[in-house]
Design a protein that fits this description.
The protein folds into two domains: 116 residues; 148 residues, no CATH class. The chain has nine helices and no strands. The longest helix is centred in the middle third of the chain and has 36 residues. It starts with a helix and ends with a helix.
Length: 265
């Protein structure tokens, strides 16, 4: 089966799942169809990546392809988390983004940058970086949802969507669980980078390293503040978003400059 067909099926399923989630909570029913459709979208997305991996003898770690892979990992992590945590509504934001990233990869193929050009040590660094970013991506979206919930409960009569969310304490607990796991993978990524990358300056990675360390300090400080001083609410939301922006600039800012700007000048 052609990879393009899998991509098209995945995009349609992602968008359909997001729409069904919106409809589900507007009506207040307990329909599981959005999740089944989301799993089908993720499987089709994975099939598309697997076919390209086979055809190109390795994964293409270019800017758009990496964004597509990260969006798939975010979707899978969300779907797994939904099995035990009430965070299905994050799919309203995550599924359309995954569809957009896959559509961009399909529409704008880039120069091949395969992973097999690196040794296994660098592969560990790259993969743990992607997993860390994916987990902290979900944490950032969770913090935005938490901010909306907090603002609605304090300033306005809560809407049906807000009333359908778990209590604030549960939402905060979920946020810090995601942050803790994400920081763990980010720590492994940074340690492996320092061990296995020989010359940060020669490889134009110093800005990525600095921003990643800054994000690690912010997230770790937030976890310590939560444990020792009980930080929560707006403090947790603000620093989660600041840390994620730093990580976003580290991961995609550097790739954007190196691949899409410098390579074309």
């Amino acid at each position: 089966m052609n990879a393009t067909i899998f991509a098209a099926l995945s995009i349609c399923a992602y968008l359909g799942s997001a729409l069904l989630i919106i409809r589900k909570f507007h009506r207040g029913d307990d329909n599981r169809a959005p999740l089944y459709l989301a799993w089908a979208a993720a499987c089709a997305h994975f099939a598309y990546i697997a076919i390209n991996f086979h055809n190109e003898n390795g994964f293409n770690f270019s800017f758009v392809s990496t964004a597509s892979l990260i969006s798939l990992i975010v979707v899978l992590l969300l779907l797994i988390a939904i099995l035990s945590k009430p965070i299905e509504k994050l799919g309203i934001a995550i599924f359309p983004v995954a569809a957009i990233m896959l559509g961009l990869e399909l529409s704008f193929p880039e120069q091949l940058r395969p992973l097999h050009n690196h040794n296994w040590q660098m592969s560990i660094h790259v993969l743990t970086s992607i997993i860390a970013f994916s987990l902290l991506n979900i944490a950032a979206l969770q913090s935005i949802l938490l901010a909306v919930q907090d603002q609605q409960l304090k300033s306005h009569p809560p809407k049906r969507f807000i009333l359908s969310l778990p209590p604030l304490q549960t939402m905060e607990s979920l946020l810090f669980q995601m942050l803790g796991t994400g920081v763990g993978f980010l720590t492994i990524s940074l340690i492996s980078g320092f061990i296995f990358i020989e010359d940060l300056f020669a490889q134009h990675l110093v800005h990525k390293t600095v921003l990643s360390i800054l994000a690690w300090v912010i997230f770790s400080g937030l976890l310590i503040g939560r444990s020792r001083y009980g930080w929560r609410g707006r403090t947790a939301i603000k620093w989660t978003l600041i840390g994620f922006v730093s990580l976003l600039l580290a991961y995609f800012g550097s790739k954007l400059v190196l691949e899409l700007i410098l390579n074309r000048t």
